[in-house]
Amino acid sequence: MSGRPCFFIPATLALLLAACSAPGTRVVLLPQEGGAPSAVVVRAKAGAGAETTVSQPYQQATAASGAGGAPRLDQADPAKVQAEHRSLFEMAPPRPQRYTLYFDAGGTVLTAESQEVLEQVLAAALARSGGDMVITGHTDTVGSGASNDALSAQRAQQVRQILAERQFPAARMEAAGRGERELAVPTADEVDEPRNRRVTIEVR
Q: Is the model's pLDDT at 49 over the cut of 70?
């Protein structure tokens, strides 16, 4: 083909297009992080009815210049794509890192082990240029739903405050509470489960 390929990368990374209007266009779908499904519809010509859906990692659709019908669908060689377009893959940001911190019962005091993990979180976040964090608080099922909503938010804010005091920019952290809605270990009501008393942190 005379045209260069177009690469569709998951929205969590970036959408990079190379000469999509060039004669003879090839569209390659790159894999979504974690294997989540993704797809893109490729039309042979703007406004034309003939189209092909690219929905599998490294699947490609090729539309020849001036050709009628739907773009041809086949499978690209992942190793070849990565070797020929190494710079494209190097532009992708590193994958998010996830951490879990645990709390003593009924409050916002981190366990001793989690205080050590917090140092790892800070180091990972500072190592990323322009990185940010999403901090989500959780509780066990002891107490009312309303009180657990408040407690989970307090836990998230407490961790955010600690990290801000250690020089991570507060503007690059989001903190929210989910109460007892997303239990790590499903339990009945009023069960004291230490693994549910937690904050999850995604460093991006």
A: no
